[in-house]
């Protein structure tokens, strides 16, 4: 992928011949928006020379050089990636770690982030990365406040600025990790289309994209209208169902898991953890397994016929629930037909529909008013798992009429009346399937322009915005726990009919369900345990913004102009979420009682009746008032010592929930007297305010027990949001060295930047027991969230909520380099460009701040988001007619966990904090991509792209259970992908 690196006022994407012409493109069109990043000059009538506006700063001034590192992707760079969604191109940047897309969270029903394309810098999470559209905030597509890039008008994006450093002083809350700003072409004229399609080498994940954009000026170029429409469909990769079988011929899935010995047995010198393949969870089988007692090991097949289950590891059932030769809950090998790990979709079926328009009117040459309207609908669908596994937690009565006679006789001969049972529930006619839909409606009204003041020309930008996002999550083919339990407990009446044993359930419509063997489920039984109206969540999220910014040069000094940017903003965030009555709890005034009728065996107060997907009602609102000032001070201009400037910013913010907080920035940039050498440094205080979900999480009440003063205490566990949360406070430090096109290598640019980010008061949730332990240890804030030791047991409670207890500390460095060679010097057409970006994570330390825990090191933990090294490289040959680009993506090898102690023999005794493991190595990955284009007319360009040419398999990601078994946050789980397309410009 062709990448352009913006280092202060030098951008690799711009050729040396145009380096002196770098100006803010928007500054030459009516009036500049203070937040736009620099681009090449396009209009010679610009009134201000060498004005630069960078997304990491609000300053726009002659000769301004930004101390914060910024990477810029031009529209040409993005086009070369040929991705159906720009999110995927941007997420490949090394500094982007922990982003969420359609291959992540596919094993989740209730997380709420399924199908959400959100960007994360430095592995700090999307909630600590501020994503902007034309320098403006966008309404969140999730109650955590993160935006969905899939809802943006992608064809009109002319540049994406990635600011890899704290920018809260300039842009406000959430910019702890940095800023990603999508800059659109506001003055586009003409028409252009983009059509592309593709599929994987396995003939799945077929995808197609159509995009069109139009722009035209009217009224002597005073009125400008731009519009775009987009439709894209990526059909996803469906699960193969049960067993150790990857979808559509993917043979790499081998049921990876941790085999974990009991802690008490680790005094024998052997490791506690062993990474295994072909893991068999022996607590259930595909169509049912007796898991304890004298009949343990009896499985059921066609028509409920019993047979002896084949355990892996040559295991033999003990009758107690254990299996010799196996470590609970896994054997190795054996009958794997009931495994569910491979049943998760590898990629969601995702559909994008986006419409966008901008109408700008020049009142006069110095003032413009404008309106933008953005509509984006993103629909996704996936299956988190097949069946609904019951891990040896069912009790089947020997009188169950669905049992074969041989099992009934065996019960009698062994003098038992029931047995423990587990099943993968492979008889279910459909897998659980989740359907999230996010629909954004966003309208902005604004004005920008320029005016004289203090003998200088100043600019302003003001806008108001209303954004509304509707999120609907609909889950289908989900079972109700109480109904399932009632349905499987069947009895035969005197007349020979089979009914549910529970008379209350029977009166309410219970239909018996046969889970003994591979017997088709009747439509009536399925309709009872999995009603058509499954779990549902409906969320309305609204953002209102009013913003005003001015920018200009205060006066000139011998070293250059002193520039000032200042402004104020008001913002209001609110949401309301409604869950279905079965998940939330049924109340007399519920509007959904027709679709979700009352059922006496369901919990009508607490809810939580579904196997998964129990959504609850919640609502909340907060508002923000803030003002900022940013100043650029030139301090040096010398032929010998070079040029230097200091950049300072200060922002004061008042939240209606947590009060006042300040953020600031102090940076310096020195273009030394040494040819091409520049030094930059910045330190900043950045903030992230608690989001709507953390403040106003839905209340959920369940029964639980905790240990308190040596006693087991039964409590009500009340899970709620915490309106007393304070903003997270971060300290960002960056120091960089830049070599920018020296005279001895005019085509070469490189930079190295060291970063150190410490976040205190990180908002994190605790368990009820952790809160009790912290209270006993003396934390009075947490003691206020509970009441224990009451003589009336029902008065004992613990309020489980988030607190500002944890901390994060990330250290590392970024390396970027580019070399451009004009091939005309070699009597060849075009130019050849080599580029590389690398991020090295030295440390990513997480301290939970909880009694009994220690800080954990995440750098190099390849089950997480922050590998030691992440790199992106490209080699591109470009001519006026065609181009060819080879690119490489690299993730270094790492460990399953840095807290594990690797050993094979003579191991120390394992501990909860530092378990021992036989092998703690997780391989990395190296992917090669190839793309090219051919311009066969002045208007039409055909292109192709092959991602992951080597079809490299993802590394196995073992878990403590048979869940996903891969890490899509780091690894390519799709495989080789082919895409072709056509771009046409009128």
TrEMBL record:
PANTHER family membership: PTHR47234, SECRETIN_TONB SHORT N-TERMINAL DOMAIN-CONTAINING PROTEIN
Domain TonB-dependent receptor plug residue range list: 66-179
Localization of this protein: Cell outer membrane
Primary location group: membrane
Short name of any one Pfam family annotated for the protein: Plug
Domain of life: Bacteria
Listed InterPro entries: Beta-barrel_TonB_sf, Plug_dom, Plug_dom_sf, TonB-dep_rcpt-like
SUPFAM superfamilies: Porins
Family per record: Belongs to the TonB-dependent receptor family.
Record membrane topology: Multi-pass membrane protein
Residues annotated as signal peptide: 1-19
Protein name: TonB-dependent receptor plug domain-containing protein
């Amino acid at each position: 992928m062709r990448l352009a690196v913006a280092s202060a006022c030098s951008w690799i994407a711009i050729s040396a011949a145009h380096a002196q012409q770098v100006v803010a493109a928007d500054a030459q069109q009516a009036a500049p928006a203070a937040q736009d990043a620099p681009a090449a000059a396009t209009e010679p009538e610009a009134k201000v020379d060498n004005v630069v506006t960078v997304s990491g700063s609000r300053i726009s001034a002659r000769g301004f050089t930004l101390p914060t590192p910024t990477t810029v992707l031009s529209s040409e760079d993005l086009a070369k990636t040929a991705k159906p969604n720009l999110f995927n191109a941007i997420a490949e940047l090394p500094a982007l770690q922990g982003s969420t897309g359609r291959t992540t969270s596919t094993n989740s029903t209730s997380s709420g982030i399924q199908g959400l394309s959100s960007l994360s810098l430095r592995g700090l999470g999307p909630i600590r990365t501020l994503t902007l559209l034309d320098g403006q905030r966008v309404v969140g597509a999730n109650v955590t406040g993160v935006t969905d890039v899939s809802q943006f008008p992608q064809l009109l994006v002319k540049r994406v600025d990635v600011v890899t450093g704290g920018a809260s002083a300039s842009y406000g809350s959430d910019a702890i990790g940095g800023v990603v700003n999508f800059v659109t072409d506001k003055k586009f004229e003409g028409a252009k289309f983009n059509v592309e399609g593709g599929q994987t080498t396995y003939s799945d994940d077929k995808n197609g994209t159509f995009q069109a954009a139009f722009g035209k000026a009217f009224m002597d170029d005073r009125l400008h209208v731009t519009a775009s429409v987009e439709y894209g469909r990526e059909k996803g990769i469906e699960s193969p169902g049960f067993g150790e079988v990857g979808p559509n011929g993917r043979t790499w899935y081998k049921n990876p898991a941790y085999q974990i010995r009991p802690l008490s047995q680790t005094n024998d010198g052997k490791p506690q953890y062993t990474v295994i393949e072909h893991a068999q969870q022996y607590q259930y089988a595909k169509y049912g397994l007796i898991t304890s007692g004298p009949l343990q090991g009896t499985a059921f097949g066609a028509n409920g016929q019993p047979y002896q289950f084949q355990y892996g590891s040559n295991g033999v059932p003990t009758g107690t629930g254990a299996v010799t030769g196996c470590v609970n809950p896994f054997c190795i090998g054996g009958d794997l037909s009931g495994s569910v790990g491979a049943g998760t979709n590898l990629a969601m079926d995702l559909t994008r529909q986006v419409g966008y328009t901008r109408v700008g009117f020049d009142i006069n040459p110095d003032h413009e008013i404008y309106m933008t309207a953005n509509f984006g609908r993103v629909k996704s669908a996936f299956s988190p798992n097949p069946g609904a596994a019951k891990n040896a937690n069912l009790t089947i009565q020997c009188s169950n009429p669905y049992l074969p006679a041989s099992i009934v006789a065996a019960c009698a001969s062994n003098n038992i009346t029931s047995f423990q049972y587990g099943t993968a529930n492979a008889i279910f006619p459909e897998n659980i399937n989740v359907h999230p839909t996010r629909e954004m409606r966003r309208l902005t009204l604004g004005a920008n322009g320029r005016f004289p003041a203090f003998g200088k020309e100043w600019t302003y930008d003001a806008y108001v915005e209303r954004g509304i996002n509707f999120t609907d999550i609909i889950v289908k083919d989900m079972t109700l726990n109480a109904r399932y339990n009632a349905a499987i407990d069947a009895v035969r009446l005197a007349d020979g009919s089979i009914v549910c044993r529970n008379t209350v359930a029977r009166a309410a419509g219970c239909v018996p369900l046969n889970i003994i063997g591979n017997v088709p489920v009747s439509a009536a039984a399925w309709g009872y345990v999995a009603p058509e109206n499954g779990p549902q969540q409906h969320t309305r999220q609204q953002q209102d913004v009013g913003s005003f910014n001015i920018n200009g040069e205060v006066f000139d000094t011998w070293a250059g102009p002193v520039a000032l940017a200042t402004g104020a903003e008001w913002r209001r965030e609110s949401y309301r979420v409604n869950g279905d009555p079965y998940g939330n709890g049924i109340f007399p005034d519920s509007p959904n009682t027709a679709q979700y009728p009352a059922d006496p065996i369901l919990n009508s107060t607490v809810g939580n009746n579904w196997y998964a997907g129990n959504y609850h009602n919640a609502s909340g609102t907060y508002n923000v008032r803030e003002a900022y000032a940013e100043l650029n001070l030139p301090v040096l201009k010398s032929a010998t010592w070079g040029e230097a400037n200091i950049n300072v910013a200060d922002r004061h913010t008042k939240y209606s929930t947590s009060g006042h907080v300040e953020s600031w920035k102090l940076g310096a940039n020195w273009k030394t007297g040494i040819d091409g050498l520049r030094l930059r440094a910045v330190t900043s205080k950045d903030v992230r305010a608690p989001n709507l979900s953390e403040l106003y999480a839905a209340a959920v009440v369940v029964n639980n027990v905790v240990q308190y003063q040596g006693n087991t205490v039964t409590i009500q566990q009340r899970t709620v949001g915490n309106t007393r949360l304070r903003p997270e406070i971060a300290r960002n430090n960056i120091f960089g060295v830049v070599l920018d096109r020296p005279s001895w290598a005019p085509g070469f640019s490189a930079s190295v930047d060291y970063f150190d980010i410490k976040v205190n008061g990180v908002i994190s949730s605790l368990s009820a027991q952790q809160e009790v332990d912290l209270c006993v240890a003396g934390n009075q804030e947490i003691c206020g969230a509970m009441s224990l030791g009451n003589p009336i047991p029902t008065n004992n409670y613990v309020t489980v909520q988030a607190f500002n207890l944890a901390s994060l500390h990330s250290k590392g460095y970024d390396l970027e380099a580019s070399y451009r060679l004009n091939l005309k010097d070699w009597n060849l057409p075009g130019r050849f460009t080599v580029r590389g970006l690398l991020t090295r994570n030295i440390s990513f330390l997480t301290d939970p701040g909880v009694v009994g825990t220690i800080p954990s090191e995440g750098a190099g933990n390849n089950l997480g988001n922050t590998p030691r090294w992440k790199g992106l490289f490209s080699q591109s040959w470009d001519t006026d007619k065609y181009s060819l680009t080879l690119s490489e993506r690299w993730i270094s090898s790492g460990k399953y966990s840095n807290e594990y102690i690797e050993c094979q023999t003579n191991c120390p005794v394992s501990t909860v904090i530092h378990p021992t493991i036989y092998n703690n190595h997780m391989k990395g990955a190296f992917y090669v991509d190839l793309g090219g284009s051919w311009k066969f007319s002045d208007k039409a360009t055909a292109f192709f792209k092959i991602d992951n040419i080597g079809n490299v398999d993802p590394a196995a990601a073992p878990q403590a259970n048979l869940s996903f078994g891969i890490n899509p946050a780091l690894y390519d789980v799709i495989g080789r992908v082919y895409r072709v397309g056509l771009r046409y410009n009128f």
